[in-house]
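Notes, p. 3: input format for complexes.
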Amino acid sequence: MSAFEIEHVNQVFGTGTARVQVLHDVNFAAEPGTLSLIMGPSGSGKSTFLTIAGGLLTPTSGTVTVGGKSYAQRTAKQRDALRLDAIGFVLQAYHLLPYLTVADQFKLVDRVKRGGNLPPETLHEVLTQLGIADLLDKYPAELSGGQQQRVAIARALYPDPTIILADEPTAALDSDRVKIVGQLFKDLATTHDKAVVIVTHDARLTAFADELYRMEDGVLTKQSA
Amino acid sequence: MFLALKEIKKEKLRSGLIIAMIALIGYLIFILTGLALGLAHENTDAINSWHVQRITLNATANTDMRQSTLTSAQIADLTSKEAALNEVSVVAKASGKKQQSAVFIGIRKGEFIYQNLKLTSGRRAQAAHEVVADMAFQQGGYKLGSTVKLGSAKQAYTIVGFTDHAKLNIAPVLYGQFATAQQIRGAVGTVASAVVSKRAGYTNPASGTKTYDTQQVIEKLPGYSAQNLTFGMMIGFLMVISLVIIAVFLYILTMQKLPNYAVLRAQGIPSGVLVRATIGQSLLLVVAGLVIAALFTIGTAAILPAAVPMAFDLPLLTAVAAGLLVMALLGSLIPVRAVLHVDPVSVIGG
Ligand SMILES: Nc1ncnc2c1ncn2[C@@H]1O[C@H](COP(=O)(O)OP(=O)(O)O)[C@@H](O)[C@H]1O
Ligand SMILES: [Mg+2]
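Output follows (575 residues plus magnesium ion):
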């Protein structure tokens, strides 16, 4: 069974002359154990697509099914719980809480989701891999953009979600870091059987894709991998 | 609380400023409350010390004990629950001391005011020219055995005892003999100004008198109600000002955090957590401010000269503090609304 499935999704913003159709009949399925990469230029609708996939935005038409049940069939609370437990969001704008140290960013998750988070050793491994293990006592303002982005990635992985949705997760990273992050996402898919979906215009990530898609003016097409 | 505490800890300057502001307002409110209560006490202490329920005055005295004149027929047939008293405003003088406005109250030996009079030192007045004086006289340099003259009269009175909490209309009381008060007053036929009773149902049957509940007489004390109203308004306004300050500060702090909150909402952190953080932050800041204000108030009370009319009543101050906490809760409502309406979509896509 697919981790989540998007069927015939259209997204329209605004009305009248301000009306823009951002997504056109988008169909997509994310499989466990697969890294799906959606490439597309800026403004093509990638973030909108990911927002709909994560249940934050209800599409103008079409359905999104997660774990056999559509978002429309769940209450707002249940969608919150689903995002907390099962979906790891790496947002394009990470907006880490400025008054929490890196360590506290994880503690906050512990306080809200009491069980099922990564055990300390695993977290430490992830942090080491991302090269931020020695930044635990730092506040976000003391970190570079790239470091913040990697903290945001670790934060999204910490609840051990089955689905990982990442929006431009490498925007602030140099090529060496891109390789590390790409490999990390790839391992999550292949070794840990996660369904990983990355939307990006960063071509450096294509090497890690199992499935490659293209988003162009709101139209999603599958590329031969 | 986790988020609230972390934020206060990180943003020490901001939080410190709000706490300082609340501490100052809280201190001002506490001091005003103390002053209001102190002045109220100085108006009513003597009456309160008698523990009476009803007060009979001349029907035409406009509920003013100072204006009331009663004849001997009007104070006849009193039971042991009643006492007659004669109140005269006087100016107390003694060589080498400042003049002091005071109230001479003549009381009868057989009646409960005389018998229940609590002395801090000395004894009760037994002879015509003996008086028991309020502690204010002692603070003014008088001692047991000191003499005092009243107005321009030649007669000297000897202070034979001191009593505490004997103030009426913000003036210290001199308790003397019933007949002496009549002499000082010099009004023919007038022997008393009031009959006070411990009985809730007491009414003086004599014509020309009217009997009131004690509270009615207190409300009519000159300036008393106006004073309480003024203080009440000042305290009320300060409460509203603190509400506005808390609301504005918290609103600004919260608005700055909305993008961060939007991300947390996108990550599935329930809005309840963020609401609790907002309310918790408000309460923590106000509690911290109140603790500082309370310490300042305690310090002030400790160094305050006895002559300053301030009284600190724990239940009353607690009620005021609780009022400020309610303001903190109310002040967090607008920011909480903003938190509840945070839209995770707003931060998606950068
Ligand atoms: N809430 C919205 N209202 C109106 N237009 C929007 C809104 N969100 C996104 N858009 C428009 O949709 C298009 C796609 O945006 P987005 O999904 O962020 O693209 P990408 O992530 O690929 O850069 C853009 O033209 C953007 O201006
Ligand atoms: Mg985008």
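Chain B touches chain A through 27 residues (CB under 8 Å).
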